[in-house]
Amino acid sequence: MKSTQATTARRCMAGSLLTALMVGGLAGCSLETAEATRVNEPATLEDVGGGVSRITLSAQGAERLGVATAPVEKADGGGLTVPYSALLYDATGKTWVYVTPEPLVFVRQPVTVDRVDGEAVKLTSGPAVGTPVVIVGASELLGAELDVEE
After folding, report:
1. Which DSSP category does 109 fall into?
2. Rounded distance, CA 62 to CA 56, Å?
3. How distant is the alpha carbon of residue 88 from its chain centre?
């Protein structure tokens, strides 16, 4: 019961704040200011379908995250291998890696895990051999893509 009252109170406060900003607080804003803010954002997202976004980082954003990549390798006996640090799990248990098709651009790609062997993950499906995958900063990219705050 208290939880419902608290939720209702938060919604009312948020609505009041939004109304106040719309009536008086945004009068001085212009398109130039909004556009300048977009240009200075550390990351931009573009929906590519299937619940996946293309993330483009600014050079400063990538530097702050310390993004590092490693290539997908061919596994002994077939299949693919990626470093364990590249592997991500979503809330439903699906496994993913971030590939980087061009500098500062990252796209989440599904992978199928055969097994984890120490610091390496053997995949039965995933990005092609040689494709760079994110090994440092992947969880931060996922948080940015899914709009998760600390």
Report:
1. E
2. 9
3. 11
